[in-house]
Amino acid sequence: MPKSKTNGRTPDISMDEWMEEMERLGATGANDEGLTMHELNALTDRSPVKIKDYLREMQTEGRLIVGRRSITRIDGAAGMVPVYSIKPKK
Q1: CA nearest to 51, candidates 32, 64, 70, 67
Q2: Per-residue DSSP letters for 19-68?
Q3: Nearest Cα to Cα of residue 58 among 20, 6, 28
Q4: Per-domain residue ranges of the chain
Q5: What's the pLDDT tens digit per position in 17-29?
Q6: Which of 9, 54, 63, 65 is the most exposed place for a label (fewest CB within 10 A)?
């Protein structure tokens, strides 16, 4: 994947590609699959506010799946974070 022109670290991905990937993850039904807000921000290079707007839209349509993923924080402590995926359109 080509690098983003904005920061050189994250892939450049269109919102349509992002939505397709979210739908693919949502089709699995697994609760810990999906992407965290941090991952979505890095992947799309969009602000957390804009990402939350898209997630709210999907929630309104009944397509948002919210799961939880176990992580190890930077201080070594275990924690849980929300992960998001989108159900395919019917």
Answers
A1: 64
A2: HHHHHHHHHH--SS-SB-HHHHHHHH---HHHHHHHHHHHHHTT-EEEEE
A3: 20
A4: 15-86
A5: 777 766 665 554 4
A6: 9
